[in-house]
Amino acid sequence: MTALFRLALAAWLLAIASPTFAGQATVAVASSLQFAFPTLVERFRAQGGAPVRINYGASGTFRRQIAQGAPFELFLSADEQSVLALHEAGFTEDAGRVYAVGRLAWIQSAGRGALPSEEDALSAVEAAIAAHRAGEGRPRVALANPEHAPYGIAARQALEQAGLWEASAPLRVMGENVSQAARFALADEARGGLVAYSLALAPTLAERAEHVLIPADRHTPLRQRMALMPGASESARALYAWLQGREAREILARFGFQAPDAR
């Protein structure tokens, strides 16, 4: 680790550690939850829960930050591996709990072209590749970076299974997380993108976009796990317990997440 990187990390840790409310829970939250989590926190607070400081990002990035000492108390990952790897290395209190199962979706701007059927969900990618090969421009295909985003891994797996990963290389644009990938997917130069179903359902995107689910057998199941860090506050523990309850699961279902026991 370079001296410059250590200095930058120390400054960042100090910034997120600065208290805003007494008893506040500091939480690292996968970007696939960017629209669902505020609703969860609103209901938690309405029932007497403490304030929550939310940090959104890619699960793989949070995994590295926690291993480097980031003072998060609770981590909601978009996959299981990030949490389990942290637990094995001693950075979480236990192996945590699977709180939801996500789905991958193709999203595109309304009117951008024919929306694929679920049976042929990647036909829009095939059409983009064909247009590029015919010299009709470079219609971008967005996804989250598979290096640190679970939904990016799922997108790559779906493209590989369809034999489109290599062919789509000139068209791919990577988001640092799945939320950024969704924004890229709706840009003027994009044909669309592979993002979290929960983002496709969000009102701010749904009003100007169309989507279709990618069949669940096209990628590894997106089992999303959460865990507490050692020494987590009572506020974080209360949130962690509440997120395992019925009301939280009902809210997550409205945003396209399946309950972990539904599979």
Automatic annotation (TrEMBL):
A GO BP entry: molybdate ion transport
Signal sequence segment: 1-22
One Gene Ontology molecular-function label: molybdate ion binding
Pfam family, one: SBP_bac_11
Binding positions for molybdate per the UniProt entry: S32, S59, V178
InterPro entries: ModA (IPR005950), ModA/WtpA (IPR050682)
Keywords (A to Z) from UniProt: Metal-binding, Molybdenum, Signal
Family: Belongs to the bacterial solute-binding protein ModA family.
PANTHER family to which the protein is assigned, alphabetical: MOLYBDATE-BINDING PERIPLASMIC PROTEIN (PTHR30632), TUNGSTATE_MOLYBDATE_CHROMATE-BINDING PROTEIN MODA (PTHR30632:SF14)
Protein name: Molybdate ABC transporter substrate-binding protein
Organism, scientific name: Halomonas urmiana
